[in-house]
Design goal:
The chain has 3 helices and 3 strands, in the order H-H-E-E-E-H. By secondary structure, it is α+β, with helices and mostly antiparallel strands. The chain has 2 domains: 30 residues, no CATH class; 61 residues, no CATH class. Strands 1-2-3 form a 3-stranded antiparallel β-sheet, covered by helices on one side. It is flat, with a radius of gyration of 17 Å. The N and C termini lie far apart (36 Å).
Protein backbone atom coordinates (compact mmCIF):
# COMPACT_ATOMS: atom_id res chain seq x y z
CA UNK A 1 0.00 0.00 0.00
CA UNK A 2 1.43 3.34 -1.00
CA UNK A 3 0.91 6.20 1.42
CA UNK A 4 2.24 9.33 -0.34
CA UNK A 5 1.32 11.55 2.63
CA UNK A 6 2.66 9.18 5.27
CA UNK A 7 0.91 6.99 7.80
CA UNK A 8 -2.53 8.33 8.78
CA UNK A 9 -2.76 9.85 12.23
CA UNK A 10 -4.64 8.31 15.12
CA UNK A 11 -7.38 10.94 14.66
CA UNK A 12 -7.81 10.09 10.97
CA UNK A 13 -8.07 6.36 11.70
CA UNK A 14 -10.55 7.11 14.50
CA UNK A 15 -12.73 9.19 12.14
CA UNK A 16 -12.74 6.42 9.52
CA UNK A 17 -13.75 3.68 11.98
CA UNK A 18 -16.36 5.86 13.73
CA UNK A 19 -18.14 6.29 10.37
CA UNK A 20 -18.39 2.54 9.72
CA UNK A 21 -21.98 1.30 9.99
CA UNK A 22 -21.77 -1.94 12.05
CA UNK A 23 -24.70 -3.79 10.42
CA UNK A 24 -23.58 -2.90 6.89
CA UNK A 25 -20.00 -3.91 7.72
CA UNK A 26 -21.27 -7.24 9.10
CA UNK A 27 -23.30 -7.90 5.94
CA UNK A 28 -20.39 -7.07 3.63
CA UNK A 29 -17.93 -9.05 5.75
CA UNK A 30 -20.15 -12.14 5.56
CA UNK A 31 -20.41 -11.78 1.77
CA UNK A 32 -16.61 -11.42 1.54
CA UNK A 33 -15.95 -14.53 3.63
CA UNK A 34 -18.50 -16.47 1.57
CA UNK A 35 -16.53 -15.48 -1.53
CA UNK A 36 -13.11 -16.60 -0.27
CA UNK A 37 -14.03 -19.87 1.41
CA UNK A 38 -13.68 -23.10 -0.51
CA UNK A 39 -15.57 -26.40 -0.37
CA UNK A 40 -13.13 -27.89 2.15
CA UNK A 41 -14.80 -25.85 4.91
CA UNK A 42 -17.89 -28.02 4.53
CA UNK A 43 -15.86 -31.11 5.45
CA UNK A 44 -13.75 -29.83 8.29
CA UNK A 45 -14.07 -29.22 11.97
CA UNK A 46 -15.33 -25.80 13.05
CA UNK A 47 -14.35 -24.73 16.56
CA UNK A 48 -16.81 -22.70 18.65
CA UNK A 49 -15.40 -20.68 21.52
CA UNK A 50 -16.48 -17.82 23.74
CA UNK A 51 -14.22 -15.06 25.04
CA UNK A 52 -14.44 -11.82 26.99
CA UNK A 53 -13.08 -8.72 25.26
CA UNK A 54 -10.29 -7.36 27.44
CA UNK A 55 -10.70 -3.73 28.40
CA UNK A 56 -14.39 -3.67 27.46
CA UNK A 57 -15.67 -3.17 31.01
CA UNK A 58 -16.64 0.44 31.66
CA UNK A 59 -17.29 1.05 35.34
CA UNK A 60 -17.94 4.75 34.85
CA UNK A 61 -20.89 4.07 32.50
CA UNK A 62 -21.78 0.85 34.38
CA UNK A 63 -21.18 -1.38 31.34
CA UNK A 64 -20.07 -4.95 31.92
CA UNK A 65 -17.56 -6.97 29.93
CA UNK A 66 -18.43 -7.80 26.32
CA UNK A 67 -18.68 -11.54 25.70
CA UNK A 68 -18.25 -12.88 22.14
CA UNK A 69 -18.79 -16.32 20.60
CA UNK A 70 -16.70 -17.19 17.53
CA UNK A 71 -16.63 -19.97 14.96
CA UNK A 72 -13.09 -20.73 13.73
CA UNK A 73 -12.03 -22.75 10.68
CA UNK A 74 -8.52 -23.93 11.57
CA UNK A 75 -7.84 -25.42 8.13
CA UNK A 76 -8.51 -22.08 6.43
CA UNK A 77 -7.26 -19.86 9.30
CA UNK A 78 -10.50 -17.93 9.09
CA UNK A 79 -13.12 -16.73 11.56
CA UNK A 80 -16.36 -17.85 9.95
CA UNK A 81 -18.61 -15.86 12.24
CA UNK A 82 -18.82 -14.00 15.50
CA UNK A 83 -21.68 -12.85 17.73
CA UNK A 84 -21.90 -10.69 20.81
CA UNK A 85 -23.59 -12.47 23.71
CA UNK A 86 -26.56 -10.57 25.14
CA UNK A 87 -25.87 -8.92 28.51
CA UNK A 88 -28.34 -11.04 30.47
CA UNK A 89 -27.57 -14.28 28.68
CA UNK A 90 -24.71 -16.76 28.34
CA UNK A 91 -22.58 -18.25 25.58
CA UNK A 92 -24.70 -21.39 25.29
CA UNK A 93 -27.72 -19.40 24.07
CA UNK A 94 -25.64 -17.55 21.46
CA UNK A 95 -24.17 -20.70 19.85
CA UNK A 96 -27.39 -21.77 18.05
CA UNK A 97 -27.75 -18.22 16.68
CA UNK A 98 -24.17 -18.33 15.39
CA UNK A 99 -24.69 -21.74 13.77
CA UNK A 100 -27.87 -20.47 12.11
CA UNK A 101 -25.95 -17.46 10.76
CA UNK A 102 -23.32 -19.81 9.33
CA UNK A 103 -25.92 -22.15 7.81
CA UNK A 104 -24.25 -25.21 9.37
Amino acid sequence: MKLPNGIPSHDTINRVFSNVLPRLFEELFIKWTEGIKDDSIKRELVSIDGKCIRGSKDGFHERSLIHMVSAWSSGNHLVLGQLKVDDKSNKITAIPQLLKLLDI
